[in-house]
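The methods section describes the discrete structure representation at length, but only in general terms. Each protein is reduced to its one-letter sequence and a matching series of backbone shape codes. I believe one specimen quoted in the main text would settle the matter. An entry of this sort, consisting of the sequence and the corresponding backbone structure tokens, reads as follows.
***
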Amino acid sequence: MFLVMASRKFKYQRREDGSRAEHCCVPFCEATIKFNSILSFHNFPLDEETRRKWIHNIGHERFDITSHTRVCSRHFKSDYVIEPSTPNGRCLLRKGAVPTLFQWNQFSGAEPGRSGLWQRRDTHLEHDYCAVPEPAAVDNALDPTEDLHKEVERLMRQVEELSLSQRFSLGRFAASDDDIRFYTRFMTYRHLMTFWKLIEPASHKMIRVTRERETTIWSEAETSAWGQSLQPIDEFFLFMIHLSVGQTQRDLSHRFNIHQSTVSQIITTWANFLYTVLGSVRIWMSEEEVKAHLPNEFQDYPDTQVVIDCMELRCQTPSSLLLQGEVFSNYKSHYTVKGLIGMAPHGAVTFVSSLCAGSASDKQLFKQSGIVSLLKPEMAIMVNKGFLVDDCVPCKVYRPDFLSKREVLTADEVKKTRLRVHVERLVCRVKEHKLFDTVIPVSITGSINQLYTVACLLVNYQNGPLVKD
């Protein structure tokens, strides 16, 4: 029993029987009678030969042995210890029992192979029974170099793990896809890292926004000198939290432990960078590509090239009366900015317009967006009831009919209405970026077009198929 107990860390408990505060005299052993109700403590034997063996094995050859000098049962093999016959009885040692289990031999009972533990020290100190040995002293006494190196490596790993768990960074949430989904809207950590591998090479030559509102091109070697305490991937993570969760710059400043002005620069820099990188990818699909991915639901409308809808984002009331008149939306009864978004029948975003004032009509926005130049006579578009754009396009228009005075819609009209629901779901995916699900502050209106476009384009990378085949 005691051999097993010697190999584990004890939980010392105060005894309530008024025992003297006597200590085990073995070097590096912290056991005391007063604070231990598990171990037994034994006097040195009277037999001179056995006593010499005790002193030699303990390695403490220059100290006075009194009636209160004890050795705890941790240092004896289990077959040397006689268990008490009654609950309150004392453990006894067999005749000739010698302590052999110590910290410096890992409680294995192996011979230490040295003259005396305290003789190896340059300075000879008397044993302080009340002192708790310093960990460094224990390591130095035990060994040597290899054990010290291993201990240093272990402590460095532990510090790194603690630092990672306390620092707000992407690595802290890498093991939780639910957290990744919440903070970035990417389905899984694997999706996020796949997207990062696509944009990471270009990030080394990113054009960063400085405090002086100037732009400077930084090489990979100069990036660390920009004054940032965050790695590029954590800057991207900060930007995604701002976009996806709608956290304020002040909150992000506290979370990432950086200055609020630095947060503002990171957000603006990454908005411009992703706007440029994602905007350089051709998202408009050819007729052949659209038909190759056409879902079964659209088989009755095989020439549908794009499903179109408008999205309005509520914004803070401008101080200028002129601007108030331009951005006020009669449809939303609020001040808004407005954008046009188009998707292929299978759900991929294939067109994103720039934002305009909320007072513009759907038809006006449609004409200004530039999508008309992409349409061909053999194509067809699917729009909402309010999109009266038949005279603006060179192709067919599928539009749900108004109920007018009829009680019910026809089966074909119901189907067109149901198909259009997919683009409403797409708008919902964009608005899962909570920055656009609230009133947009005036302070970010300078980069709102970039933020909106990036949010729309990211939908193609963050989620699975919108319309299942």
The longest strand covers residues 304-314. The longest helix spans residues 145-166. The two ends are 67 Å apart (CA to CA).
